[in-house]
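The material for today's practical consists of a large collection of protein records. Getting from the letters to the tokens is the skill we practise here. To make this concrete, we reproduce a full record directly below:
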Amino acid sequence: MYKELKKFKQNNSFTFTANDNLEIVCNAPESGSGIFLVYEVNEENKELIMVGSTGTVQNDGTLKSKNGGLFDKIVNGHQFAKTGRKYSWPAQMKLENIDRLEVYWYDTFNAKTKVIPTFIEGQILQNFLTDNGKLPRWNVAF
């Protein structure tokens, strides 16, 4: 776990296989804003392959979030095609022979904690870049 994530008390994770329904297995809150980390898990290997976020802080300090929060961003956010992850992840997993994904989410902006989601996303991606010389393979750019 990245040390930057330890302070976020509202967090959880779920496992996803290509045969699962992402709308059913995703346990992220529809009201939460923050980040999510996606790991490829094959046998004993676990590799961070993507970091994403949702929620924008306005200049008055309030959060602007899309309806559906972290849940909607994970399930219906577009990736690999102009279609939601509930469709694109299983297809990509089959292409890459990925057994399962582990998705960890963190609510970074709420009544008790006010950390800009993209700030934490950037910190995690910077740490990954520093350690690996590149971004996680499912992150196109940052």
Summary: The chain is about 25% helix and 25% strand. The helical segments are 22-25, 69-76, 85-95, 117-132. The mean pLDDT is 92.
